[in-house]
Amino acid sequence: MTDDSRENTKLNVAILIGEDFFRKRTFDAISALAITPMAFEFSDTLLDELVAAQPIGIVVDLEDERFSGLSVLAAIRATPELADVPYIAYAAFDREDIIVSAAALGINHVIRSVYAADLVKMIRDFLPDLDEELVE
């Protein structure tokens, strides 16, 4: 996890976004839903860290220059403890290479501009339905 993560709580969403602008906007959107955003960095222990955090959702930037978002998301989906965790992955509309590869791997994604346009609604929609009591 990175230093800008908050303390682990029962309701958290894992953030795999390197770009400061989108990471901050994503943090703000998740916080607006009374859920704790937790930033993670690509490392050899990433999958173990995610399993330990028990996120209710994962947000992945498929264009991150430091790691292959497609490979990381494929590994997450292949990890039994994480396989059912919903995710949202995004890429720019002109990254046809990523879009085609994502489709071939069965990875659903959204276009970056669509993701940015209505972050709170998009994040709320991809997360599982939560009891009102859990979100308070």
Description:
- This protein has a five-stranded parallel β-sheet.
- The model is unreliable at 2-9 and 132-136 (pLDDT under 50).
- It has helices spanning 20-32, 46-53, 69-78, 96-104, 112-117, 119-126, 132-135; strands spanning 12-16, 36-39, 57-61, 87-91, 110-111.
- α1 (20-32) crosses α6 (119-126).
- With 136 residues, the protein is of the alpha/beta class.
- The protein is globular and about 35 Å long.
- The longest helix has 13 residues, at 20-32.
- β4, α4 and β5 form a beta-alpha-beta unit.
- The chain starts with 11 loop residues before the first strand and ends with a helix.
- It is built from seven helices and five strands, in the order βαβαβαβαβααα.
- It is 43% helix and 15% strand.
Task: Give me some keywords for this one.
136 residues, alpha/beta, 5-stranded parallel beta sheet, disordered C terminus
How do the helices and strands line up, and which of them pair or pack?
Layout: E1 12-16, H1 20-32, E2 36-39, H2 46-53, E3 57-61, H3 69-78, E4 87-91, H4 96-104, E5 110-111, H5 112-117, H6 119-126, H7 132-135
Parallel strand pairs: 1-2, 1-3, 3-4, 4-5
Helix pairs in contact: 1-6
Helix-strand sequence: EHEHEHEHEHHH
Structural class: alpha/beta
Give the N-terminus to C-terminus distance in angstroms. 24 Å
What is the number of strand segments? 5
Can you summarize the main beta sheet?
Answer: 5 strands, parallel
Low-confidence stretches: 2-9, 132-136
Number of helices: 7
Give the % helix: 40-55%
The percentage of residues in β strands lies in 15-25%
On the 0-100 scale, what is the average pLDDT? 84
User: Strand order across the biggest sheet?
Assistant: 2-1-3-4-5
Shape field:
globular
* Oligomer class: single chain
Rg computed from alpha carbons, rounded to a whole number of angstroms: 14 Å
